[in-house]
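Feature request, filed as a ticket because there's no other form

It would be nice if the structure record came with a short human-readable summary line next to the tokens. Right now we just get the raw output. Example of a typical job, pasted below so the devs can see what we mean:
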Amino acid sequence: MDLSKEILKALQEKPGQKVRELAQRVGVDRSAVHSVLYSDLRGMVYQDDQYRWWPREGTVKEEPDEKAKAKNTILNKLCQYYLDCLNQDDRYGVSVFASSKYGDLDYVELKEMPILTGNQHRSFDWDDKASKLLEKTRRNKGLTVILGYPVYLKKIYYRSGGEGFVVEPLFLFYFNEDPLKSRTKPVLANDLPQLNFRAFKSLLGGGQDSNIIVEMLSLADELGLSNESPQEVLPELDKVMQRLCVLHSES
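Raw output as currently delivered:
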């Protein structure tokens, strides 16, 4: 039997298995199971925040029709993710100078992470600097306020010979704002964060954009940030951070 069919059958018979369990059950290495889960079975299975794999609702043992199969190809998802990257600011990502001799920075450091403290509706209420940054973005129609967490400080070298740093958040959290109510402060959207292309390109040492996007797509799956079914429980931010640390230590 084809390996992908074996793994899918194993998950249908016993949902919620980890990669190690699947590898033992079908008699192959964990790397082979990983490869199948992220390629042949992409879109047919998903991973929860406990690293367990589940078949998606409605997945059947028979071979999917060509239309559904094409919809879940890596190329399709890659193109969609690339379009999402194009929608980000500053050429496929967010990156701002860490300091400025003029004192007019394009970011502020919050005293707390609103998502972790449960203050998503009050992100701009307790911080004057954050409120001023919001007003700055509203005056300039080309700017958008985004919450970034955690951040990566990247060292850069100027052509003049000087050195500096740029701030590149790993995850981007967007706000919901009513354009008809300019006096109402935006509220953090209840959505999964988006991976910042700029930050991960820096962390991965550069390279071709297409290769970086492939790596980001796999990482999003590993972190549980690409689940599409509304019935699936979205992972909590602190658990996403824990999983990111685990994946980093294993790489």
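Something like this underneath would help us a lot:
The beta strands are 45-47, 53-55, 96-97, 147-157, 163-173, 175-176, 187-188, 194-195.
The domain at 1-72 is CATH 1.10.10.10 (Arc Repressor Mutant, subunit A).
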